[in-house]
Automatic annotation (TrEMBL):
Pfam families reported in the protein's UniProt record: SH3_retrovirus
Protein name in UniProt: Retroviral polymerase SH3-like domain-containing protein
Organism: Trichonephila clavipes (Golden silk orbweaver)
Retroviral polymerase SH3-like domain: residues covered: 60-116
Transmembrane regions listed in the UniProt entry: none
Domain of life according to the entry: Eukaryota
Coiled-coil features, chain-numbered ranges: none
Length: 122
C-alpha cells in the first residue's frame, strides 16, 4: 500500500481514487521483472511476454477524441482529460472525464506526459 500512497501523493489527486491507483499499480507491477530475475508475473501466468509500450505516467494529461457522430462541425475534436489506469478487459485506458465526472475506457487518446496535474483539478 505504500506504493499506492506514493502514487496518490505525487499525482496530487484525492484519496477517493485510491482503488484506481491500486489497480494501476498492480497492472504495472505484473509487467515488470522482480523476484524471478528474468520473468514477470505476467509471463509466469500467461506464458508470453507482456507488452509494455502502452505504459504511461499515472494521472497524466491526455486528449480523448470525440467521435464524429457526437460532435457538431464547430465542436472540438478532442477533450482534455486525465488517465487513471489501464483497461483490463480490452486494449485502452481508464480515463476520468473532468466535466462529466465519470470514468470511461477508450483507446482513442493522445498523451501529453509533460504536464503535471495541478492541485484542485479534481
Amino acid at each position: 500500500m505504500d506504493c499506492v500512497k506514493a502514487m496518490l501523493n505525487t499525482s496530487r489527486i484525492e484519496k477517493c481514487f485510491g482503488a484506481e491507483a491500486l489497480v494501476c499499480f498492480t497492472y504495472v507491477k505484473n509487467r515488470i521483472c522482480h523476484k524471478f530475475k528474468d520473468k514477470t508475473p505476467y509471463k509466469l501466468y500467461l506464458g508470453r511476454k507482456p507488452t509494455v509500450s502502452n505504459l504511461k505516467v499515472f494521472v497524466c494529461h491526455l486528449y480523448v477524441g470525440t467521435p464524429k457522430q457526437l460532435r457538431n462541425k464547430l465542436d472540438l475534436r478532442a477533450k482534455h482529460e486525465i488517465m487513471l489506469g489501464y483497461a483490463c478487459s480490452t486494449r485502452g485506458y481508464r480515463i476520468w472525464l473532468l466535466d462529466e465526472k465519470k470514468l470511461i475506457k477508450t483507446c482513442n487518446v493522445l498523451f501529453d506526459e509533460s504536464k503535471r496535474v495541478s492541485n484542485g483539478i479534481f
